[in-house]
Amino acid sequence: MGSVRNITSYSGNGLRDWLVQRVSAIILAVYILTLVAFMICHQNLTYGDWSTLFSNLFFKIFTVIALFSLILHAWVGIWTVLTDYVKPTWLRGLIEIAVIISLIGYFIWGVEILWNIQGVLF
Amino acid sequence: MSDLTKKVHFKIYRYNPDVDQAPYMKDYHIDVPADRDIMLLNALFLIKNEDDGFGYRRSCAEGVCGSDGMNINGRNGLACITPLSSLKEPIVVRPLPGFPVIRDLVVDMDQFYKQYEKIKPYLQNSNPAPAQERLQSPKARLKLDGLYECILCACCSSSCPSFWWNPEKFIGPAGLLQAYRFLADSRDDHTEERLAELQDPFSVFRCRGIMNCVDVCPKGLNPTRAIGKIRSLLLQEAL
Amino acid sequence: MSLPTYEFDAVIIGAGGAGMRAALALAQSGYKTALVSKVFPTRSHTVSAQGGITCAVGNTHEDDWRWHMYDTVKGSDYIGDQASIEYMCKTGPECVYELEHMGLPFSRLDNGKIYQRPFGGQSKNFGGEQAARTCAAADRTGHALLHTLYQQNLQAKTHVFSEWYAIDLVKASDDSGFAGVMVMSIETGELAFMSARAIIFATGGAGRIFQSTTNAHINTGDGVGMIARAGLVLQDMEMWQFHPTGIAGAGCLVTEGCRGEGGYLINKDGERFMERYAPHAKDLASRDVVARAMALEMRAGNGFAPNGIDHVKLKLDHLGADIIKSRLPGIRELSMTFAGVDPIYEPIPVVPTCHYMMGGIPTNVHGQVITKDTNNQDKIVDGLYAAGECACVSVHGANRLGGNSLLDLVVFGRASGLHVQEQLNSYLPRKNASEADLEAAMSRHQRWMTDKNGEHVSDIRAEMQKIMQSDFGVFRTGEFMEEGVEKLKTLVERMKHATIDDHSKVFNTSLVEAMEAENLLVTAMATAVSALHRTESRGAHSREDFPKRDDENWLVHSTYQQENHVMGTREVNRAPKFIEPFEPKERVY
């Protein structure tokens, strides 16, 4: 008996996974609502408005946090689904590695885009 | 009592590993009393009278022993407290889903019992027992209502997809209901140890809250609520 | 023969309350113990017990085990063994506290102590006012008790053979007793010999000999059958309790606790008729008294459906929704399911229904099985024990009081477990069985598995139930019983040639049911012959041709041996250890 250990889980702790899932969801919800509010306030949204928003330092940090939340949220969710449905360990491991690589890739890519916005302005 | 009867159409899952290559559904047209309602279990007796080789479990016939859990018209329930009048024809009866079938409606419930055993379903108290009873206020006792009544029929766990996918790791609604029954008992002082055993990503946290268990429980119990309470306890413990 | 053999120090047959309590007593002993049960332990019939477990813990008023003992002796109509009753009533509180410590979720009084409710036949101060002595977990006490005991056995790591069926005792080759039990795994159909130094029977009742019963389908007198076939004695088999309140038509039990909480019976005129039959105790008179009163009411045309399933009604609505929901939630559930009636608003249709076997396998206070030697003297069968409903220790005599069965099974389950342990410490050798002994013990299994094209066993069972219901019910008369015995004898002959269609091995429920039906028929036969033999009315045994109790001739146990249906008598124990015995008095409530 004893607790079930699985190294591929985010933390090996169900409560932490569960909390991450909820907290990241809240962050994402707030982030999306902020974007929606911004778009409502700027009915004729231009590229200029958009890049002004994203060049704001606070919003930039907010975006990185949201992106990070998305990555964590996705990882916990996908890991859960994979452990439900993909039973052969080797196959699941393979898919998990692919998912991890792409998630990290997306994150780096996202941050890089944010850098680029900075580049345009300066 | 009059002898008025009517024909009722059943489709029953049949599989005897001794003689059958594969499971199949068998049709029965059975005469049942027309002037009064009977329970599905009574109808199964009538079928067995006609077809000796048909197997299912039964004991108390009043919904307290938990023997005759089965899938009735797509929904888990106890045959002995399911009136025939509540069922649409053809009445399709299958074994509880998610368990290996031993024969006909008889399933292998080992995994289900193992998960129950995992939560240490017995009172643990490190203090020596007093000469008389341990006192418990009616208010503290009230917390056990809705928990201790479980009859281990497995209708809930067998309707839970999370239990289907991870029967060896997810404790399942029945076991978790009992886990909370002991967490909630004012006489049990092993709360910390019990919670420590439940922290992993599977035991409790595979519950996705879809409430199939609540929907089918023949005793009207609410495992989802109990699971929520375990989660709250885990959270309180962590904070 | 390649018959697998399992060696144990002790084998317990049956995992209801008695079997599991015995297993628990043995679990800590270090002796290798097996608990064999034909159903998963929590499916055993103890689970259906509702009202509670009676013992003088005195939580609601001053109480004394001697008062409980007085009530039980009186309830037994004076053929309960007083040494056993004394042991049960005196040890009761200890056993109930043990259950509480194990975690049984008893209902509670405001001061935190175990809740107790009034039950039938209970009095303070040797026949004084109504007592409240039954400890309860709402109306699910049996369920709570059985699950608690199973949980304790899990913790104790008892070796459970779940869904294994005991076929017959295996005689020792030197004729010194029994070497073990022949068992079958229901799941695989595999037979095995369980060699044991001690065997405890905890096989429960046999209410399925009647058409209408509160008993589970598994209550088929397996222990009674095995003991009878082994040539041992059965005792007081005519004594069957008819519970006053089974749901009409369905047979489900409605606890006496309903009347304990203040419910009462009414006839079609709405009259509380028990006031006429038992002016003092009214609806809380002893079960035999209430059941007879109900039968008489219906016979007088005062039932609700004289042309259908006749019944009287149990009125609870005046108790209010709160009491019903908190104290009787299971009853509410059952009556809504099986009678279509919510007791908060409407009375429940009820009828006396076969409920409990007071007779059974005679034992002493340690649970040791007693038989008769060739000189008709009592003889202990070494290594053989019985406890719970299958046993006749005899604490219930001719009529059991409500709440005493759960007490009986924990007190004597525990006592036999403890005594087995003692005996294993001192002696009890392992006995050997010859090939012939083993073959004899599996013979009935072999017959069912090979014989073909005979009469179907279910027809015989149905006929037996009909005979028992009509000729051996609440009221009995010699004439009908004689006919009944003759009919049963022909059924015994027919049973020898009956067959089943299914000869496959895996989970063959037809095979199990056939072997159960054989045990039922043995039990029915013993009941019928014993009932015809006892020419008096006592407790639950009520003869219209002998309406009076006859202490001169019948203040004795009756004994029955299967071979040639030999009847005899055994003295009632009237030698309690700590107090003066209670002398027979007229029994009024």
Description:
The complex is a heterotrimer of chains A (122), B (239) and C (589). By secondary structure, chain A is mostly helical. Chain A has one domain: Fumarate reductase/succinate dehydrogenase, transmembrane subunit (3 helical TM bundles of succinate and fumarate reductases, Up-down Bundle). Chain A has helices spanning 14-41, 47-55, 57-85, 89-121. Chain A is elongated, with a radius of gyration of 18 Å. Chain B has 239 residues and is of the alpha+beta class. Chain B contains 8 helices and 7 strands, in the order E-E-H-E-E-E-E-E-H-H-H-H-H-H-H. Chain B has helices spanning 40-50, 110-118, 138-142, 161-165, 172-183, 191-196, 212-216, 223-238; strands at 5-14, 24-33, 69-72, 75-78, 91-94, 101-103, 106-107. In chain B, helix 2 runs parallel beside helix 5 and helix 5 (172-183) packs across helix 8 (223-238). The mean pLDDT of chain B is 96. By secondary structure, chain C is α/β, with parallel strands linked by helices. In chain C, helix 13 packs parallel to helix 15. The longest helix of chain C is centred in the C-terminal third of the chain and has 25 residues, at 509-533. Chain C is globular and about 65 Å long. Chain C starts with a strand and ends in an 18-residue tail after the last strand.
